[in-house]
Amino acid sequence: MNKINNHLSYKMEGDKTTDNGDDYYKNVKLVGFVKTDSETLPGYKNEAFQWSSADNLSSYPSSYPREHDILASSKVLGGDTVVPVDQDSVNRCCTRKVLYKRLPILQWLPKYTVGEHGISDLVAGITVGLTVIPQAIAFANVAGLPPQIGLYSSFMACFVYTIFGSCKDPALGPTAIMAIMTRENIHDMGPEFAILLCFITGIVQLIMGFAQLGFLIDFISGPVSAGFTSAAAIVIATSQLKDLLGINIKASSFIGFWDQLAMHIREISVGDGTLGITCMVVLLLLRKMKDIQIGPTDMKDKTTGQRTVSSIIWLISTARNIIVVVFCAALGYMYKEHGNLPFKLSSHVESGLPSFRPPPFESRVGNETYNFVEMASKLGSGILVVPLLSILENISLAKFFSDGKTVDATQEMLALGACNLISSFVGSMPISGALSRGAVNNASGVKTTFGGVYTGIIVIIALQFFTPYLVYIPKAALAAVIIAAVVFMVELQVVKPMWRTKKIDLIPAFATFLCSLLIRLEVGIVVGIAINVIILLYTLARPSVHVEKQQSEFGYEYLVITPDRSLVFPSVEYVRAVVSKAGLKQGLSSIPVVMDCRHIQGADFTAAKGVKSLIDDFVRRSQPLVFYNVKPSVISIFQGVRPTEFNCCVTEQQLHERLKGYYYSRMQTLTL
After folding, report:
1. pLDDT tens-digit series, residues 602-627
2. Where is the SLC26A/SulP transporter domain (predicted)?
3. How far is residue 613's CA from residue 573's CA, in Å, rounded to a whole number?
4. Please, how many CA atoms are within 13 Å of residue 330, restricted to the half-sphere of its CB?
C-alpha cells in the first residue's frame, strides 16, 4: 500500500455499466475502506472521503450490504437494478459516524439502563456534588472573586459535558490552576473580567478543536507540566495563608507575600490559626482514612459487615471537605449567635440562580469604563495561556482514567470549549476538569457522563436554598480545604525518575518552577516550553553519528557511518563535518566510507546540497563514498541537485560487490 496521507478510499462489488456518460454498478455492495494517498489503489475509488488524524477507522464495517443506506437512488436499465456511484452517497455514510463522534451521548444513551448505569451515576454525581460545593467557594476565594462565582462555575458545565464529553470521569468546574490563573490575569478588575475570560477561553478552545490544533498541547512536556503544577500549588497555598492565619495581607507576588507576612507576623489571629491548622490536620487524616483495610483485600471475600464498614469509611474520607465545612459552619453559627466570634467568617453569598445572559463586553471599574477590546487587552496573554492550560488539565485527567483507551483530544477540546462558552452566560470563571473530583468520580463507580447531571442539580439546590447559610463558613476552614488539596500537587516524586532517565529534563522542569514561582505562572510555562524547544532544536541540529571500522570476509576494511535521524538543514553541516573528519582520520583518506542511511526517513534541499558538497570532498581526494539503505524518496532528493557521482547500494550483496571492486582497483593502482 502506498504511503498514508489524508484520503479514504472505498471498494465496491458489482457489474459496471454506463448510462449517458455516468458509471453505474449492478447488484452493488460496499466492500470496505482503506486509507491511501492521492493515488488510488487498484480496485478502489478515491472520490469523496476526507479524514483527520484523530479519526478512528475501526468503526467502518468490512462489509456493508445495505445499499440504500449509502448509495444514491437506483435506476432500472434493461431490466437490471443499477445504482449510481455518487459522491454524496459515500458522504452520507460518514455523516452518522461524525454525528456520533461529536455527540458522544448518542453512543451510550440508547443503551442506558437504570440498573447497570443509573444507580452508579447517581451515587457518583451526588458524591462529586458534595465535594464541589466547598471547593467552588474556596476556589472563588483563590481567584479573588465573590463566593457565588465559584458556584456559578460548577453546574452549567456538568450539563454541557454530559452531551459533548467523550470521557466519563472528568468533573468539570473551577479548579485550583484555573483559579490562580484567573487571579493573575484579571488583576483585581472584578468578576466581569473573569466572566469574559471564561467566554474567550471557550471561543479559543472551540477554534483549536475545529482547527485540529491539539498538537500544541504536546509542546508542554512532562517536566514543564510538573514544574508549573508544583509552582502553582505553592503559590495557591501561599495565597491562602492569610485566611488560614487571620491576617490582612495584600501582595501581588510570591516573594512580596512572604515579605508582608514577616511584617505582620504579630497580627496572627489565634482563633483563625487554631481553627485553620486543626481543619487541615483533620482533612489530611480523613484523606488517609480511606487506606484503612477492613478484612480481606478482595471485596468478594469480605463479609457483609466488613463491606458496610469499608463503604462508610470510604464515604467519610471522600466527603471530608463537606463534613469539615458543615461542622465549621455550624460552629460559626453558634459563635455568631452568642456574639463572640474568635475567627473570621465568609463574605455574603448572593442567593438564587444566576440569570442566563451574554457575558459582559463592557465594564466599569471605578471611574473608568472599559470596552471589549480594552478588557481583552487587560487580560493579556491569559486569553491564550488559560485555554491551553485548561485543555492540558482536562486531557491529562481524561488520559489518567482512560484505562489505556485512546482519548479523542479534538472532541475534548470541543467539549471543554462549549462548557466554558455556555458557562460564561451564567457568570462563570474559566473551568476545567479537576483531578481530585475526577478521582472521586472514578472511585464512586461512575458509568457515563450522566453523573454530571446529578452534580449540577446538587449545586443548583445549594444555590437556591442554602446560600444564606454559607456566610457562616469560617475563612480559615476554606483555606484549609484548599491547602490540604493542593499540597499533593507538588510533584517531588518526578525528580528522581528524571535524574535516572534523562538529566537534561531537569533544566526545563526547574526553570519552569522557579520562573512560575518568582515571576508569573504564565511566564514560567512559556520559559519552560522555550527551553524544551531549544533542547529539541539542538538535538535536531546535532544528531548522534556512529562511526565504526569493519572488515569484510575478503579482508578489506571500510568505515560505516550511521546518523541516527533524518537530514534537515540545521544538521547537515554538522553531519558533513563528522563524515569528512572520519574519512580523513579513521579512513586515512583512502579507506571506503559507507554511509548507512537506514534512519534517514527524509531530507530537504539544504541537506541535498550538503550531501553534494560531501560527495565533492570525497571525489577530490579519490576516496570512495557509498550510500547504503537509502529510502527511494531520499534518493530522489539527493539526485535532484545533480551531484558529481552518487554511489548507492540497496542490498548488502551489492554493497560488498562494490567495495570489492574498490579494493581490487586500489590494489591494481598500487601494483602499477
Report:
1. 899 999 999 999 999 999 988 899 99
2. 120-511
3. 10
4. 5
